[in-house]
Amino acid sequence: MTHKTVVLYPSLGVGHLNPMVELAKVFLRRGLAVLIAVVDSPDKDSVSADALARLAAANPDIAFRLLPVPSCGTHKHHPNPVMRTIGVLRVANPVLLDFLRATPDVDALVLDMFCTDALDVAAELDVPAYIFFPSALGDLAIMLNLPYYYPTAPSSFKDMPETLLHFPGVPPIRALDMVTSLQERGSDIAEARLSQCARMMEARGILVNTFTSLEERALKALSSGLCTPGRSAPPVRCIGPLVLPGNTGGISERHACIEWLDTQPDRSVVFLSFGSLGRFSTAQLGEIARGLESSGQRFLWVVRNPPEHRSSSVEPDLEALLPEGFLERTRERSFVVTNWAPQSEVLRHQSIGVFVTHCGWNSALEGIASGVPMICWPLYAEQRMNKVHMVEEMKVGVVVEGYEEGLVKAEEVEAKVRLVMASGDGEEIRQRLLTAKEMAMDALKEGGSSDVAFAEFLTDLQNRTCASKR
Ligand code: UDP
């Protein structure tokens, strides 16, 4: 194969950048040069310059370029983080164009699902563009169908919360479990997201961070045209699971929580971690603490300040945030980490028995790739949809009651922890996870479904490049 350079263009935030870095490694293994163009955004939800520098240091074979976005524009102050992201990416388009013009031999662009505006840049330069979809294939099936479905829905999703919606390839889904940004029909954000859904059809192909045997039904619906009636979707290729390796970030020392896990019995620890942005009110933290205490189980818990402390960089004051005496009473069987844990490494540890997760797709895949049963507690974005796939389709976890109302009670936390850790139903889920873990490894092996799908994508890229150079 001729030497190629592929430019990867992630959306803002750790949950989008991390899987792009893992994708970059796949390109490298196949002998392609790869460059990740990262929009330099001051938004508080974006990856910090320090974190990016660490990532670059840990991955010296990958070229990272920061694209500075102009500081003008109303997007900066939009109260909604998704609208801020969309605004920043829009302002970044001309910067990306200039950057690509100045970069020799770019053979393809791989755009995060939020970066569909950059399809215009690809068209202007006549570079083939592919979408990288870092969420579940079930979400893609829904999102490609939404431009058809949305106009015919009887009302805004928020006004019919319990109505079951039927999309091809996925279980029925309550309107309240649809992605947050699409809840209000006609809102700026819903319109912007719908346009992104529709524009994915313009890509030359869609790479999805999942594997075929995990989401067979969704793949069938997509490839048989059920999701996009009257039109063929671009080829959809499942190339995952691309998850962070156990030891990341170039940190050579082991995190203290890993040392603690080493001293715990196999499959005995409840691990609670809620993505890069998840935060709870003090009341909810109290309920979780009481539930964990009365469950009697060992636990490792990542605790952050409540949302109202958000702008402050102050370390959480655990004594003040958690119920009085809780830390002392559970000291023998718990480890509380503030703000950030090496999640992927934790999940691979043999002492982890269950993962309480917000259902971000990276977290879900990390749980699956580690064979750990999950307790699903969706918080924002598309996590409620992921919860439906995880609980009803893949059956890799159970859901906590009360997430819809914004407060999960201590008794519910205790009940679900006990169910997974100490019941026949929990054992059944564990066995299913062990199978899913095997299937994930098989997909990535040479000749496995994800390996083959990636090779097919490269053949397509090669054909396109040869055709355009003729
Ligand atoms: N993560 C981590 N430590 C934490 C919280 C999150 O390493 O304390 C990582 C996690 O392993 C995952 C990513 O951050 O790779 C979060 O991505 P996900 O899609 O699960 O959720 P998001 O943050 O996008 O909502």
Structure keywords:
single chain; 470 residues; alpha/beta; Rossmann fold; 2 domains; 7-stranded parallel beta sheet; 6-stranded parallel beta sheet; 17 helices; binds uridine-5'-diphosphate; UDP-glucosyltransferase activity
User: How far is it from the N-terminal to the C-terminal residue, by CA?
Assistant: 16 Å
Helix content bin: 40-55%
- CATH superfamily of the largest domain, called what? Glycogen Phosphorylase B
Number of helices: 17
Shape: globular
| Fold-level CATH name of the largest domain | Rossmann fold
InterPro entries: UDP-glycosyltransf_plant, UDP_glucos_trans, UDP_glycos_trans_CS
Enzyme class: transferase
EC number: 2.4.1.-
GO molecular function, one term: UDP-glucosyltransferase activity
Strands, helices and their partners?
Elements: E1 5-9, H1 14-29, E2 33-40, H2 49-58, E3 63-68, H3 81-101, E4 106-112, H4 119-125, E5 129-133, H5 137-149, E6 164-165, E7 173-174, H6 188-199, E8 205-208, H7 216-223, E9 236-238, H8 256-262, E10 269-273, H9 282-295, E11 298-303, H10 318-321, H11 326-329, E12 334-338, H12 343-347, E13 352-357, H13 361-369, E14 374-376, H14 383-393, E15 397-399, H15 410-422, H16 424-444, H17 449-469
Parallel strand pairs: 1-2, 1-4, 2-3, 4-5, 5-8, 8-9, 10-11, 10-13, 11-12, 13-14, 14-15
Antiparallel strand pairs: 6-7
Helix pairs in contact: 3-4, 5-6, 5-7, 9-15, 15-16
Residues 13-15, 18, 244, 273, 275-277, 302, 340-344, 360-363, 366 line the site of uridine-5'-diphosphate (UDP).
InterPro entries: UDP-glycosyltransf_plant, UDP_glucos_trans, UDP_glycos_trans_CS
Keywords: Glycosyltransferase, Transferase
EC number: 2.4.1.-
